[in-house]
């Protein structure tokens, strides 16, 4: 049963040291409170809800607020709101508000009659609150008039006394009493809380004690004890579990054993003859036999939590749980794996089995982060208070994986923005936010050490190679052993494309699979032509040929790699532009066999843009698979997938690990382009830069994935110039459909303040970004200072996205600092160079001596003779 009375608190001073009323702790023991809210203390109300949501059911007089503020308070967890008649009518229109959360506040001093109330509330069963009833006798008469079917009635006790309060309680009205008049200390002369709690309680025992159930915060029964008014008062006063022992009198639990209890809350059952104490048990447990409960050990989730918490404190070396605690990447992989298995479970047994696995790993994550089951349950309860619910659509990537159609990919993100806007205060900024704004952290490079800078510029952690390889190796093995069947199995599993019967689509590709709007065809055609031109211009005009000595001619010519496999990612976004970037240079180089691979949608089809590009570049086939399975199929070939000589293209960690593995396997005979991972950009901006342009460039890469990183180097910008960029970043980010992804990437993105362009370039060359954008006064003059970068974008009119799609440069570029040693994809990525030597007699005579001498040094006689035998022949 809820608290039979409500302490009235002053929002402005609650929790503060100056608070003269009951302490916050005592109020949370009672579990409910009342307060009047207006604009002056609205922020305090939100703060209080955030801090005490689960421990205090907050009842708020909101007559001075707008409907928006009221719904925000309900959303934030206010238990009940006391409203005017007009507000009541408006709130009843919102179907998601439970009616018992709305209480009609009757106007003023007047005694209300039954008709007045019934007229006001119609058929709706809402409570009634009379704010200024001075005369208890009047209330008595009034309650009688309302009769037995009356709604819950709250009465503000303007002249509080124990006697008045008890009279109202006997009438089953709920008195609201200023907390300054209440006490847990009987000696203080105020109204004792214990007396109010037990006002209507009646013991069913001859000794007059109350049977008391003791439970933990999850509601698990710890044991059964007895209470008296005195022990309850003592418990409320000390904040501990204090009971009435039938043999020893007052019993302060744990005084002799040390296993004390912190009191969380006290309440009565429905017929008020039994108390429930919620406690936080310390020490070995509640039972004198040192078990957590008097009914033995914990079971289920509570038991698992206890074990995990113990393991976290001292995990046996080598235990699996210790491995999980030490490797966030392994834990993440297991959570994803188990979630996927749960989704695929069919029978009741399978669902229970897989759900148990998922809960185990989820709880390990909680314990590793210092979160308890109680915290999780509090969060669940808080969600149940929401008035404006999210639609519950799956996010784009998951919706696609699950084969949902017609699910607007980012509707949930939009809901989140709306919701965020309707909640005025948040206690802490989540990742990516600062002071309520999506903002990158700022550092002045003159005030940080090199070591700190190194840490700041570290790319977001990736799964360890070991963890990813452990996932990828069995996949590759399965493809080698079982070919097409295994490719299909993984596609069914990861892409949910269960209707797919063949892993390959062969050219000529059917027209109906590449139906596109005219504008898209035009855009692809323009981009195709620019990319073709830029890559064709990279071809050697003629083979290199020089005479190193008279008669010694060396030359070099290139040949296309015969068979290439092009991986087009498709996990989190559909990327036909990557098909262009990989396919066009392959076509220009003259590769004989071009095989594309890309994960299909859940309906088993590829996005038509990718099929159209495959058609335009003359691809032989498209492998309808993603991840390591696609890479393995390309590397080794299967019954229907053509083996290739080189695999190119970006991808996630499974794709990259697959590429690394097959390129290291000499039996595969396959090479790869480079490690190209999560997108990144570094923007260097000075005072001439347009803040909106700078922000838009940063966001264009931040929206790729939560593991993307964007860096701004601000050259000699003052506070207002920096603030202008930050403001733009926030405003533009909030308007993006992928704002939830952006928040993730901005959380590990930074602004670095430097004084000069030289300092900026030193930093940039050290970071070696995938994309470097120069938004500087004389941007072109700075290009000669670039030493390491995948691709450079010069000046205000060159957004990075032109390079992603249409300018002609390639967007498949080295990330993760590999721009220090790798080039992005270019024509030579599809070619090999062959060198050629051609000597005349004179030439051999000129160079032969050097060759023979060096062969002699290396003691390779056959090498020496291959020359001497010819020189002798020339002599004869
Ligand atoms: N650097 C560049 O030039 C460049 C260009 C474009 C894209 N990108 C990057 O490429 C990446 C694309 O990644 P993506 O995930 O969107 O698509 P993806 O196609 O690379 O990966 C999706 C595949 O991963 C596999 N997979 C997913 N979860 C798995 C698991 N638990 N176990 C085994 N396999 C699993 C599945 O087979 C799935 O088909 C992004 O990080 C993007 O930023 C980089
Ligand atoms: N910027 C990405 C490479 O890091 C490529 C891309 C594709 N589509 C849009 N952008
Ligand atoms: Zn991009």
TrEMBL record:
Co-factor(s): Zn(2+)
Start and end residues of each stretch annotated as Disordered: 396-437
GO molecular function: ATP binding; histidinol dehydrogenase activity; metal ion binding; NAD binding; phosphoribosyl-AMP cyclohydrolase activity; phosphoribosyl-ATP diphosphatase activity
Reaction it catalyzes: L-histidinol + 2 NAD(+) + H2O = L-histidine + 2 NADH + 3 H(+); 1-(5-phospho-beta-D-ribosyl)-5'-AMP + H2O = 1-(5-phospho-beta-D-ribosyl)-5-[(5-phospho-beta-D-ribosylamino)methylideneamino]imidazole-4-carboxamide; 1-(5-phospho-beta-D-ribosyl)-ATP + H2O = 1-(5-phospho-beta-D-ribosyl)-5'-AMP + diphosphate + H(+)
InterPro entries, per database record: Ald_DH/histidinol_DH, HisE, Histidine_synth_trifunct, Histidinol_DH_CS, Hstdl_DH, PRib-ATP_PPHydrolase-like, PRib_AMP_CycHydrolase_dom, PRib_AMP_CycHydrolase_sf
Domain Phosphoribosyl-AMP cyclohydrolase stretches: 224-295
Pfam families recorded: Histidinol_dh (PF00815), PRA-CH (PF01502), PRA-PH (PF01503)
Record's keyword annotation contains Protein biosynthesis: no
GO cellular component: cytosol
CDD domains found in the cross-reference section: Histidinol_dh, NTP-PPase_His4
E.C. designation(s): 3.5.4.19, 3.6.1.31, 1.1.1.23
Pathway: Amino-acid biosynthesis; L-histidine biosynthesis; L-histidine from 5-phospho-alpha-D-ribose 1-diphosphate: step 9/9; Amino-acid biosynthesis; L-histidine biosynthesis; L-histidine from 5-phospho-alpha-D-ribose 1-diphosphate: step 3/9; Amino-acid biosynthesis; L-histidine biosynthesis; L-histidine from 5-phospho-alpha-D-ribose 1-diphosphate: step 2/9
Keyword Transmembrane helix: no
Any one biological process term the GO annotation gives: L-histidine biosynthetic process
SUPFAM superfamilies recorded: ALDH-like (SSF53720), all-alpha NTP pyrophosphatases (SSF101386), HisI-like (SSF141734)
Entry's family note: In the C-terminal section; belongs to the histidinol dehydrogenase family.
Protein name: Histidine biosynthesis trifunctional protein
The species this protein was found in: Xylona heveae (strain CBS 132557 / TC161)
């Amino acid at each position: 049963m809820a608290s039979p009375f409500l302490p009235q608190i002053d929002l402005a001073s609650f929790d503060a040291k100056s608070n003269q009323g009951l302490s916050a702790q005592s109020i949370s023991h009672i579990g409910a409170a009342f307060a009047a809210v207006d604009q002056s203390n609205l922020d305090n109300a939100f703060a209080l809800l955030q801090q005490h949501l689960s421990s205090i059911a907050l009842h708020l007089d909101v007559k001075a607020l707008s409907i928006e503020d009221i719904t925000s308070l309900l959303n934030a967890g206010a238990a009940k709101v006391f409203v005017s008649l007009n507000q009541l009518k408006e709130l009843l229109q919102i179907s998601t508000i439970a009616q018992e959360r709305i209480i009609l506040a009757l106007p003023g001093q007047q005694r209300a009659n039954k008709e007045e109330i019934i007229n006001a509330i119609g058929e709706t069963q809402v409570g009634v609150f009379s704010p200024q009833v001075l005369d208890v006798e009047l209330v008595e008469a009034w309650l009688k008039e309302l009769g037995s079917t009356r709604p819950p009635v709250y009465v503000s006790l303007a002249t509080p006394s124990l006697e008045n309060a008890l009279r109202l309680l006997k009438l089953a009205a709920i008195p609201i009493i200023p907390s300054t008049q209440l006490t847990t200390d009987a000696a203080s002369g105020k109204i004792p809380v214990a007396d109010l709690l037990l006002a209507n309680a009646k013991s069913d025992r001859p000794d007059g004690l109350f049977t008391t159930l003791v439970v933990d915060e999850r509601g698990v029964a710890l044991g059964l004890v007895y209470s008296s008014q005195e022990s309850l008062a003592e418990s409320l006063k000390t904040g501990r579990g204090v009971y009435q022992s039938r043999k020893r009198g007052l019993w302060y639990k744990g005084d002799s054993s040390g296993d004390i209890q912190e009191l969380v809350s006290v309440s009565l059952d429905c017929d008020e003859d039994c108390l429930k104490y919620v406690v936080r048990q310390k020490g070995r447990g509640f039972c004198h036999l040192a078990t957590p409960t008097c009914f033995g050990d914990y079971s289920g989730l509570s038991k698992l939590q206890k074990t995990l918490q113990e393991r976290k404190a001292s995990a046996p070396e080598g235990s699996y749980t210790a491995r999980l605690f030490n490797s966030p990447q392994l834990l993440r992989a297991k959570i994803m794996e188990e979630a996927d298995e749960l989704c695929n479970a069919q029978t009741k047994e399978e669902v229970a089995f897989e759900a148990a696995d998922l809960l185990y790993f989820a709880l390990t994550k909680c314990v590793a982060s210092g979160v308890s089951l109680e915290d999780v349950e509090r969060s669940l309860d808080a969600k149940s208070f929401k008035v404006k619910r999210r639609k519950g659509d799956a996010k784009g990537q998951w919706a696609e994986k699950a084969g949902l159609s017609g699910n607007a990919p980012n509707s949930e993100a939009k809901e989140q923005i709306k919701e965020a806007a309707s909640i005025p205060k948040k206690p802490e900024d989540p990742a990516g936010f600062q002071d309520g704004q999506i903002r990158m952290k700022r550092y002045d490079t003159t005030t940080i050490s090199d070591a700190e800078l190194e840490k700041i510029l570290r790319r977001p952690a990736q799964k360890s190679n070991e963890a990813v390889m452990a996932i990828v190796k069995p996949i590759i093995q399965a493809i080698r052993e079982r070919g097409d069947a295994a490719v299909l199995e993984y596609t069914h599993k990861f892409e949910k494309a269960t209707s797919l019967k063949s892993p390959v689509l062969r050219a000529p590709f059917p027209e109906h699979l590449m139906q596109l709007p005219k504008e898209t065809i035009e855009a692809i055609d323009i981009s195709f032509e620019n990319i073709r031109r830029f890559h064709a211009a990279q071809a050697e005009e003629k083979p290199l040929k020089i005479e190193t000595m008279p008669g010694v001619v060396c030359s070099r010519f290139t040949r296309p790699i015969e068979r290439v496999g092009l991986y087009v990612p498709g996990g989190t976004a559909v990327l036909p532009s990557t098909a262009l970037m990989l396919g066009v240079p392959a076509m220009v180089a003259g590769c004989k066999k071009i095989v594309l691979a890309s994960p299909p949608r859940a309906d088993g089809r590829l996005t038509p843009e990718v099929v159209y590009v495959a058609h335009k570049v003359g691809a032989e086939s498209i492998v309808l698979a993603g991840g390591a399975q696609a890479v393995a199929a390309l590397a080794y070939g299967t019954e229907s997938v053509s083996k290739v000589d080189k695999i190119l293209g970006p991808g996630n960690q499974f794709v990259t690990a697959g590429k690394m593995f097959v390129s290291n396997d000499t039996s595969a005979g396959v090479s790869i382009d480079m490690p190209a991972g999560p997108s990144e950009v570094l923007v260097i901006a000075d005072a001439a830069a347009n803040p909106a342009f700078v922000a838009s460039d940063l966001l264009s890469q931040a929206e790729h994935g939560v593991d993307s990183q964007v860096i701004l180097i601000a050259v000699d910008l003052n506070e207002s110039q920096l603030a202008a960029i930050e403001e733009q970043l926030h405003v533009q980010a909030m308007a993006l459909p992928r704002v939830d992804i952006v928040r993730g990437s901005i959380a590990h993105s930074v602004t670095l303040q430097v004084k000069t362009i030289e300092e900026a370039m030193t930093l940039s060359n050290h970071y070696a970004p995938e994309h470097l954008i120069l938004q500087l006064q004389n941007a072109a003059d700075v290009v000669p200072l670039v030493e390491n970068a995948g691709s450079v974008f010069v000046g205000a009119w060159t957004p990075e996205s032109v390079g992603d799609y249409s300018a002609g440069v390639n967007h498949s570029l080295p990330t993760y600092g590999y721009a220090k040693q790798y080039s992005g994809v270019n024509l030579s990525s599809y070619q090999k160079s062959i060198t050629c030597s051609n000597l005349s007699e004179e030439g051999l005579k000129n160079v032969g001596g050097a060759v023979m001498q060096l062969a002699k040094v290396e003691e390779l006689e056959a090498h020496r003779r291959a020359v001497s035998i010819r020189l002798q022949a020339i002599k004869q």
